[in-house]
Amino acid sequence: MAVPLDPPPAVLAFDVFGTVVDWHGSIAREVGALELGIDPGQFALAWRAGYHPAMARVRSGELGWTKIDDLHRMILDQVLDRFGIADLSEAQKRHLNLAWHRLDPWPDVAEGLTRLRRRFTVCSLSNGNLGLQADLFKYGGLQWDLILSAEVFRHYKPDPETYLGVCDVFDIAPAQMMLVAAHHADLAGARACGCRSAYIERPLEFGPAAAKDVTPRPDNDLHATDLLDLARQLGC
Amino acid sequence: MAVPLDPPPAVLAFDVFGTVVDWHGSIAREVGALELGIDPGQFALAWRAGYHPAMARVRSGELGWTKIDDLHRMILDQVLDRFGIADLSEAQKRHLNLAWHRLDPWPDVAEGLTRLRRRFTVCSLSNGNLGLQADLFKYGGLQWDLILSAEVFRHYKPDPETYLGVCDVFDIAPAQMMLVAAHHADLAGARACGCRSAYIERPLEFGPAAAKDVTPRPDNDLHATDLLDLARQLGC
Question: pTM value?
Answer without folding.
Answer: 0.97
